[in-house]
Amino acid sequence: MKVYISVDIEGVAGITHWDEADKTHRDYQEFREQMTREAVAAIEGAETAGATEIWVKDAHSTGRNLITSMLPANVRLIRSWAGHPLCMVQELTEDFDALMMVGYHAAAGSDANSLAHTLSLQPQTITLNGKPASEFLIHALAGAMLGVPTVFVSGDEGLMEEVRATNSHIGTCAVKRGVGQSTISMTPAAACEAIRQGAAAALRNDFKRALLPVAGEYVLEIAYGDPVTAYRMGWYPGAEHAGPRRIRFRTADYFDVLRMLNFVT
Ligand SMILES: [Zn+2]
């Protein structure tokens, strides 16, 4: 069984402030370590359930956060960014059995996580076929395009509600809840244990039911904070400048959505 694990930081236990996600800030070390611990917990859970090959993508900011020396010997690690449209699931292919997301977070515009955003801090909101598009949804659909189900997601409670509403067969683990600038969180150790168990349980289930359906058409809308950015992004081939701060893009091919997001966020 071949498993892909994409790891972000804004949804790990305890993380609350942007300083804690910023490599240049001294508050970052603690949460870089927690991001790594949660990734290791998911890896261990996957192995317990029979995963024989595990690829891990470091998917926050520079893509160089996970403490490599803490990872077990038998994983393959993807660091930094190639610039490929698969973005946070770079190198995912049809021959993977399952995709997992660890440390993921609520979408841009959500009040469920003080660090909520989608892909960059530039979009105020991104919607796909009328629904707010989180990094979870964008990359779970990338998996679906390749026939790979997203079987387990950990992060903030707001995102877990979105995941369960999207497909109730996806395993979830909420390690914290955001209230304004604050967070109410599990301890690091408790979060790791919950992720380890959740990842193992997800792979023991009939996880093919977690595969999201592929739509016939995708309508992507992005709202920016300023009209100047929206005007410039509206020149992306096929995009429509849909309002002073908004662009719209329609396609039948989900890869076109990923390609566009690579250039306009
Ligand atoms: Zn993120």
Description:
By secondary structure, the protein is α/β, with parallel strands linked by helices. It has two domains: 2-117 and 134-210, 3-Layer(aba) Sandwich (Rossmann fold); 218-264, no CATH class. Helices cover 29% and strands 26% of the residues. It contains six helices and twelve strands. It has helices at 28-48, 135-145, 157-166, 188-204, 227-233, 254-264, and strands at 2-7, 53-58, 75-78, 98-104, 123-128, 131-132, 150-156, 171-179, 182-185, 218-224, 240-243, 246-251. Helix 1 packs parallel to helix 4. The chain binds zinc ion. Zinc ion is lined by residues 8, 10, 105, 135.
In short:
The chain has 265 residues and is of the alpha/beta class.
Basic shape: globular
In the CATH classification, which architecture of the largest domain applies? 3-Layer(aba) Sandwich
Number of domains: 2
Q: In terms of per-residue confidence, which ranges show pLDDT below 50 for 5 or more consecutive residues?
A: none
Supply the CATH class of the largest domain: Alpha Beta
Could you name the CATH topology of the largest domain?
Rossmann fold
Key structural traits:
binds zinc ion; 26% strand; 29% helix; seven-stranded mixed β-sheet; Rossmann fold; 265 residues; alpha/beta; 6 helices; globular; 2 domains
Secondary structure: elements and pairs:
Layout: E1 2-7, H1 28-48, E2 53-58, E3 75-78, E4 98-104, E5 123-128, E6 131-132, H2 135-145, E7 150-156, H3 157-166, E8 171-179, E9 182-185, H4 188-204, E10 218-224, H5 227-233, E11 240-243, E12 246-251, H6 254-264
Parallel strand pairs: 1-2, 1-4, 2-3, 4-7, 7-8
Antiparallel strand pairs: 5-6, 5-10, 8-9, 10-12, 11-12
This protein binds zinc ion.
Zinc ion binds at residues 8, 10, 105, 135.
